[in-house]
Structures are given as C-alpha cells and as structure tokens.
Amino acid sequence: MRKRNSGKDRLITVALHVALAAGLFFAAFPIYWMLSSSFKSNTEIFALPPTILPKAFTLEAYAAILGDPVKLRFFFNSYFLAGTVTVLTVLIALLAAYGFSRFNFRGKGSLNTLIISTQTIPPITLLIPFFGLVVSYGIFDTYVALILTYLVFTLPYAILLMTGYLNTLPRDLDEAVAVDGGTSWTALWRVIVPISLPGIVATSVYTFLLCWNEFLFALTLTKSTSMRTVPIGIQLLMGQHAFEWNQMMAMSVLGSLPLLVIYLVAQRYFLAGMTAGSVK
Amino acid sequence: MTRQKRSHHKLKRAVAPYLYLSPSLLIIGLLMLLPMVTVIAYSFQNSAVLRRDPSFAGLKHYQAIFDDPVFWASLWHTLYFTCMSVIFHMTIGMVFALMLNSDRINPTLRSVLRVLYILPWLFTAVIIAVIWRLLLEPNGVVNSMLMQIGIIGSKVEWFSSPQTALHAVTFANIWAGYPLFMVSLLAGLQGIPKDFYEAADIDGAKAYQKLIFITIPQLMPIIISISLLDFIWTMQVFPLIWITTGGGPIYSTEVLSTYTYKLAFSSYNLSQASASAVVILLISLGLTLFYIRYQKAR
Known about the structure:
heterodimer, A: mainly alpha, MetI-like fold, globular
C-alpha cells in the first residue's frame, strides 16, 4: 500500500538504517571492546589513540588465566554449583508444578500467590539471616551453604515456569494412565516427563544463568579462595593485580562463554526462560 | 474397584498434591519465610547474630537509621538510579523494538541485529561493571573519543568524581537492562492484529497516529508489568554499584543495598543492618502487592 519510491520514503528508510547503526554501536561496542582488549597487551589497552583492532595480537592474558590453578578453581566452582542447583531445582520444581497443574486442593490459590510474591524478595534482606543461620550451623564457606541459598532464589520462578508448561499439556494423557490403574506418580514419570523436555530445558537454562551470575551470597557466605566463584574471582583479580586489564577482560570473556553458548544454541528456550514471567 | 479401594484411591488423590509440593514448601518455608521473620526479629535486638542472648532494643535501630543522613542519601540515590533506569530501559527498548519490527529492513539484517541488540543481557553484572570501568577509565576509550569529537575538554574521572559517579553507574545500568523491554515489546508488537493498522490506513492515519492510538495502547499491559518488575529488581541492584564505585566517592553512589551491606559486613552492626533490610523489604512488598493486583486485574 505504501508508495515505495517517493523521495520522502527513501529518506525515512535511510534514517532508519542510520539509527540502527547507532543502536548497534551503543549495544555492541562495550562488548567488542572487552573482546578486543582481552587480546591486547596491558600497555596497548591504554594506547593513544585507542587501537580498535589489537595491533599486537596476543593470547598472554588467556594463558595467564588458564595456567593459574586458583582461577581454574573459580571456574570449577561456578560450573559445579550452577550444575548441581540446576538439577535439584528442576527436580523439585517439576514435582511442585505437577501438583499445581494436575490437582485441585485447598490453599492452591494462596500458595500460588505466595510463590509469585517470593520472586521479588530483596536478596539483601535474606542475606543477614542467612549469614546468621549459615554460621550457626557451621556451614560457612561450604558448597552446601551456597546450594541451599541458590535453591531458594531459583525455585519460585522455576515452579511458575514449569507449571505454565505443564498446563499446556493435555490432561487426557495422564488420565489414560489412571484408567490403566497407574498412580499419578507413574503418570508423571512415564508420560509427563518425556514430553516436558522443552519446559525442562527452559527452566534449566534460567536456573543455570541465575546461579552463574550470583554475586552477593557468594561474596558473603564464602571466604577461602578455593570456594570462590567466577564473579568473585573477577572482583579479586581487580584488587590483587593493580589493574591487569587484559587479564580481567580475558576472564570476563571466559566467564561469559556459558551464557553466550546457551544463548546461541538454545535461543528459544533462553528467551522463554527469561521473559515468561513478565510477559504473561 | 471395590468401595474400600475407591475410597483409598480418593484419599491418595487428596494427599498427593501436598506430597508433590512438600519439598518446595519446605525449602521456601525454612529458607525464605523463616529468615524473613528472623531478620525482623534481629532488627529489634541489640547485637543480633553476634551475641547468643541479645537484649530487646525496641525501635532503637530504626531510629538510628532514620537519623542517619547517609540513609536518606542512599534512598534518594536508589530512587534516582531506579527511576532513570526504568524510564530509559523502556524508551530504548521501545525504540529498538519498533526499529526491528519495521518492514523497511531486510529480514536477515533484522535477525542479525536482534541478536546483537540483546547482547548486553547476556553478561553478568560483575562483568558489566568491569567492562564499564575499563571504558570509563580516565585514560580510557570513552574519554578519548569524547575529547576527539570535542564534547569534553579534559579527561573526566567518571566513577571517581562525586559529580558524575551516580550518572555513570546509572548509565551502565541503563545499558545493561534495556533488552528485557526490547524482547518483551517485540513479542507484544507481533501480537497486535494486522487489521488494526489496515483499518487505520484506510482512514488515512499517519505513522505517528498509528503509534499513539494503536501500538502504544496495545502494548500498555506489557509496559506496565515489565516496568513494575524492572523497578523492583533495579531497586535491589548490588554488584554493579559495588564493583564500579563501592558506593563512593563520599557516599555519592550509596544506594540502599550497599548501605545495608556495609552496615552488616563492614561495621558488623547486624542489628541496624537488619532494620535497614526490613525497610527495603517493606518497600519491595508494597510494590509487589501492587504488581500482583495488577496481574490479577488483567
């Protein structure tokens, strides 16, 4: 319907593309700068005028990070914690979601509201009592303390996400199992779980990201270097090495890899996990 | 089935949901609701956590916080940081979503740009903080570019001067947070029925009229619910500020979360920190109630 070739129309199209380029610069330049700095020497990072492409391309920063067992431990801790919490969260959330989706019971509505509202509880409010609890149970500076903490933050949204997914699955499937004399437990594992994979993947992605990014509790509930995670490691690097910027950038790139890979491989699930709660 | 078996089955059906929910409820009850009660209790005790038999303090710690000018400064900074962030997240997210949704760009370019525009979302707060520290270093690339264009005459210490620090952290947070709006609004735009626009075209509506009378009203529910969530979450931001400025220089970027953290883990005044944490909780709960009401009304 639009008259495509009028001068005014062409002008609008050109202006739109200029704006898109400006937007691209705004969105991507900081990340490009991180990437390019990670391949520079520390002196080149502050060269004047700034070098857009590394003039002397070097992997020394990556070698320094990957050759240091202390830093490798940060990565191990992050992967281990995020992995463990993801498995636990998905299992526990799946059970709860099944309960919400397939049964009617007293208090269902208020429990649902409770779970929605726990999503917005400020982490800093829970930090102080957690610190008190963790110290008094003698689990300060352990994986257990962080795993329990992270579960609390991942569960509510994971439950909502899984419930939303299970609600889209037809009920006849599990009713068929009941007719055959099977229990709801059998129906869950034989019928529901195998066809819930998309929901499980979206929940896992969301949980993994949340754990991978967590900073406040990892900072406060751990102390020894061997218990620290990647975000804390980056902060420590900033303090120790009086601004080895290339190493900080290399570690940031390595620390962003899981998120980037997940996003590129499972974009659909990633977006589903990150926006489901807010769009609905 | 015999009658006995059937009633047995019914009982199982009645108990089952509670069994399925019990692990979650146990965790949420013990590790979320109980700690909330605990932190409220701490705020009324002297030397909470640190002493085994703390004495009752009444409202003393709340009084101390409300008498502390740094608390009020933090509240104001939190409000500025949060409002500016939400407004710009919404504006930038909307502009990007509308641009990407335009039929004037070719589909390949559109999908490439969509991935690139989402980029800031894929980075952890700590990494975002480190990136912006590098960019905004006095000898860094941003100063160098701005001086070349002639916008600034000399190097600006963005994060370490009290005049610019709060704006600088807010800017970094704006950069980090717009993709949530962009993605949600893009999804919303695709859900607006095409015939609305066709009808408007027949009536001879101009582009801006379609935007004001069709697009924005249709997106309103998304805009409101995301703004509320964004407001609640931005209010709680900690790592970005902790790593870029640590609340300084001279409290100029102190927000409620860094203020509370320092009370608890630098001054070890856990009682007063609890009082401050309860204040934050009450603000969040107020906003959450509002959010839930809005969601239910829809």
